[in-house]
Specification:
Largest sheet of chain B: 9 strands, mixed
Number of strands of chain B: 13
Number of helices of chain A: 8
Order of helices and strands of chain B: EEEHEHEHEHEEEEHEEEH
Number of strands of chain A: 18
Distance between the termini of chain A: 50 Å
Low-confidence stretches of chain A: none
Radius of gyration of chain B: 21 Å
Oligomer: heterodimer
Number of helices of chain B: 6
Radius of gyration of chain A: 21 Å
Shape of chain A: globular
Low-confidence stretches of chain B: none
Order of helices and strands of chain A: EEEHEEHEHEEEEEEEEHEHEHEHEH
Strand order of the largest sheet of chain A: 7-11-6-1-4-5-12
Structural class of chain A: alpha/beta
Helix content of chain B: 25-40%
Strand order of the largest sheet of chain B: 9-8-7-10-6-1-4-5-11
Helix content of chain A: 25-40%
Largest interface: A-B, 96 and 84 residues
């Protein structure tokens, strides 16, 4: 069998954006191996009601495992459930390199005693082997690796593989969960949403990131206005200097000691472009730099640059983008 | 209570990375090696838990070559009580590293195992949960802070758009991200004391790496961009370029 298992994610009954990307990446492998894509969706009762939607990305089958108390991610139940399914002769098992996937995939790898390649940016089947391209040193180099194990476990970087339409049956099949969330050792006591429940910088298709050139946390409203003008797929990011100064939380940090991001569009505002920051964002599709210093290293990686004071440029930029509606 | 902190020697994040002649590894020439920044946060967290408990023991463990003793000495200088060097060459196969650590951890009988949420070289972010599975311990990843409460570890975990407060009974494995504390600098006294603290060396039970590196390459150069202009006057042209050339708006 050369089927590929795509472990997808849902939240509050809706499929997460990464799910389409994981199924599409799995389809790319399955086309080369001549197998089918099976999606695996785990969640609370009713979570699988939208599972059939995954057919449009190429899932022949959607395996739905519903269990009590799975409104939140329960590491032990999820890992046992995926491991039980992944052992059914799959060529590869794909995860999203989201918070959940980064926690879940290594547990499954240890349970199955197979290696795992995390955060893949490209996949290729070559002579029956799966060749995984993945960043090392936060994207300052890329390694092409081959996994010696079956199934081959890979997590894919968000925003890197496109969710593309490829009609397949998407036949929903209910399977059981392994274990019981209520008796799991790790329990979620509470979930605190970040301010306004905004999108995470690691997964957002558009990022507006600020640096020391913003001159203080009290000026972040200028970046928030731009984010709001760009719409709901935009998230805020920050440089390490800004986070170290306590202006912004670490969750927003982009760079080698923060998140490595690959959005469609990245605005670097008042960020000079230290090596460890560039490492974290240079794989963005389009980079815009706004900086007072024309010699700032950020301009070397930017597609489009504006030399100027962020405090003057940002309001005008927000205004022009709002005009686009 | 006994806390084991797993650390790793990695290139400094400001180092220039170059591919070596074999095309599969990096050229170590001119690279400054440090303790992985997230491991420093894990060690700082361990030292704070020890202080809060009014005592205990912190053991630093690493898998690495002889040169990794340098990072263990740094850990001892920061305040760890003893250190263990598991000699071997770590690879991208995190499961092999986890297995070597698990063999040592089985002898340590730790109440808590802390480690950075990832090492900033391999960037795999996998050793913590793998180690927990091998030891059959509960595991919480990417904790920004932890506290001990009645034999349980309570961790604040960063996830997309929020924080999950999670708890697990000890012994447990917790991977640590940057929180509100900066890692302490070793004091001169700490550095002197570190020289006398026990540092044990053993062979790492790594086994064979099951991740074969075929090729290591530098990221593709980005095509040269352009400066649209100066100040607010450049903004309409910038928006036009984003719409019409890059087609991202």
């Amino acid at each position: 069998m050369a089927n590929v298992l795509a472990v997808v994610e849902q939240r509050d009954g809706a499929l997460r954006r990464i799910s389409g990307e994981v199924v599409s990446a799995a389809r790319q492998i399955a086309e080369a191996t001549g197998g089918e894509v099976h999606a695996l969706l785990i969640g609370p009762q009713g979570a699988g009601s939208n599972g059939g939607e995954l057919g449009r990305y190429g899932a022949a089958k959607v395996l739905v495992a519903e269990g009590a108390g799975l409104d939140n991610y329960s590491p032990e139940v999820f890992a046992a459930t995926v491991a039980a399914q992944a052992g059914n002769g799959y060529f590869a098992v794909l995860f999203g390199a989201s918070s959940q996937g980064r926690d879940l995939a290594p547990r499954v790898a240890a349970k199955l005693d197979v290696p795992l390649a995390g955060d893949a940016t490209a996949l290729e089947v070559d002579g029956g082997e799966l060749v995984v391209t993945r960043p090392v040193y936060a994207g300052r180099a890329f390694a092409k690796v081959v996994l010696k194990g079956e199934p081959r476990l890979v997590s894919i970087r968000p925003n890197t593989f496109r969710a593309t339409d490829a009609e397949a049956a998407g036949a929903v099949e209910n399977i059981g969960v392994e274990g019981d969330a209520a008796s799991a050792r790790v329990q979620v006591r509470e979930v605190k949403a970040a301010s306004g429940g905004k999108l995470d910088v690691g997964e957002a298709p558009i990022v507006v990131a600020g640096g020391r050139g913003m001159k203080g946390p009290e000026h972040w409203n200028l970046l928030e206005d731009l984010r709001d003008a760009l719409g709901s797929t935009c998230a805020l990011g920050a440089s390490r200097a800004v986070v170290d100064s306590g202006w912004r939380p670490h969750a927003e940090q982009v760079g080698q000691t923060g998140k490595t991001v690959s959005p469609q569009l990245y605005f670097a505002v008042g960020i000079s472009g230290a090596m460890q920051h560039l490492a974290g964002m240079r794989s963005a599709r389009t980079i815009v730099a706004i900086n007072k210093d024309p010699d700032a290293p950020i301009f070397k990686v930017a597609d489009f640059g504006v030399v100027g004071d962020a405090h003057e440029v940002l309001p005008k930029l927000t205004e022009e983008i709002r005009k686009l509606g | 209570m006994k806390i084991v902190v797993c650390i790793k020697r990695v290139p400094d994040t400001e180092s220039r990375i170059r591919v070596a002649g074999d095309g599969r590894s990096i050229d170590p020439a001119g690279i400054k090696f440090v303790m992985s920044p997230y491991d420093e946060f894990a060690l700082e967290t361990a030292l704070r838990v020890k202080d809060a408990q009014g005592g205990g023991e912190v053991v630093a463990v690493t898998v690495g070559e002889a040169t990794s003793a340098e990072q263990l000495r740094s850990a001892l200088a920061m305040g760890a009580d003893s250190a263990v060097l598991l000699k071997g060459q770590p690879t991208l196969d995190g499961l092999a590293t986890a297995r070597a650590l698990a063999a040592e951890l089985r002898e340590q009988n730790a109440d808590l195992v802390l480690l950075g949420m990832k090492a900033v070289d391999a960037d795999q972010q996998q050793v913590g949960p793998m180690l927990a599975e091998l030891l059959d311990m509960p595991c919480i990843t990417v904790a920004a802070s932890i506290a001990m409460e009645d034999g349980k570890v309570v961790a604040h975990r960063e996830v997309e758009g929020g924080v999950e407060v999670m708890e697990a009974p000890t012994p447990a494995v917790v991977s640590i991200t940057k929180g509100e504390y900066e890692p302490r600098y070793p004091s001169l006294k700490g550095i002197m004391a570190a020289k006398k603290k026990p540092l044990q060396e053993k062979d790492a039970e790594l086994g064979e790496s099951r991740i074969e590196v075929r090729e290591l390459s530098m990221p593709p150069e980005r095509p040269a961009g352009r400066i649209i202009g100066q100040g607010v006057d450049a903004v309409p042209d910038l928006v036009r370029a984003l719409r019409e050339e890059a087609k991202v708006l």
